[in-house]
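Re: beginner question about structure tokens

> Can someone show what the tokenized structure looks like for a real chain? I only ever see the sequence side.

Sure, here's an example I had lying around. Input first:
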Amino acid sequence: MLLASAHPAQRRLDFTARSAAASGAGWVRRQEAIMGTAITVELWSDDRRNGDAAAAAVIEEMHRIDRTMSPHKPASELSRINRDAASRPVAVSEEMFRLLQQAQRFAELSGGAFDITYAGVGHLYDYRAGVRPSAAELERACATVGWRGLELDAGTRSVRFARQGMRIDLGGFAKGHAVDNAVALLRRRGIAHAIVSAGGDSRVLGDRRGRPWMVAVRDPRREGEAVAVLPLEDVSISTSGDYERFFERDGERCHHIVDPATGRSPAGVRSVTILADDGLTSEALSKTVFVMGLERGLPLVETFAGVDAVVVDAAGHLHRTSGLLDGAAPNQ
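And the corresponding structure tokens:
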């Protein structure tokens, strides 16, 4: 099960802490703003120098993914795809091609609720300035959206757009991919206890040396408060909420999660939290369930082995999948 039970063992932990201090072991923490969000890594290392090097390697990996997958950097691989793929097939890296294949898999599984071509309409929103497209702009842009128009050729490892005006955005799961890469990197360096976070996406490695990692699910309407605190070990957790980037216009909350079918922000739920074995799955499903809503989204999650969800609906009520244990489930 994804949830771990707490282990008090205070005397043992205190003794470990004193021994660790004497040997130079301890917790290492670094934080930096990358990919438009706060990137945090916290890890235990038996050697401070190795711990610092491991944390620095995580930060560098985050920068590498940002350089590759940012839609805002003209030299990124993603920008090159958006610039040229409507005119000709664009050869891409193996990493990018695998991600695009995964995106198409989630699009098919969700009936298009997850669709990275939503960017054709998503780029028209400016959440800082409070700008949304007009009805006419929305209609024109929605005509460019459709995951089946994203054509992948495994033989040439290339991508092509079926129509002009199409574009893609990996914001639906690039951060999940990044935390997966970071945890794999830490494992290769011998790190056994860590948490890596990229905004609302986190992955925990092992436990917190005798205790579970405690990860809070934010209350979507009361900043600083939580609707649940989950004890976790060796799992990924992603939360998508309508409070992250949004503005209000004519009584409508326009937030950064866009329904590919309508080009508008879904209003059926306030937040979706997914627990899964990997960050790519947890992030993609958190966006998918948000778009699909409670009645269609939770049954979809139940079809994935080892995946669970906590959903706060539009009325503020909590819902969870059957895999979350009684007594470990969130409290209202």
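Each token stands for a local structural state, so reading them left to right follows the chain. The radius of gyration is 21 Å.
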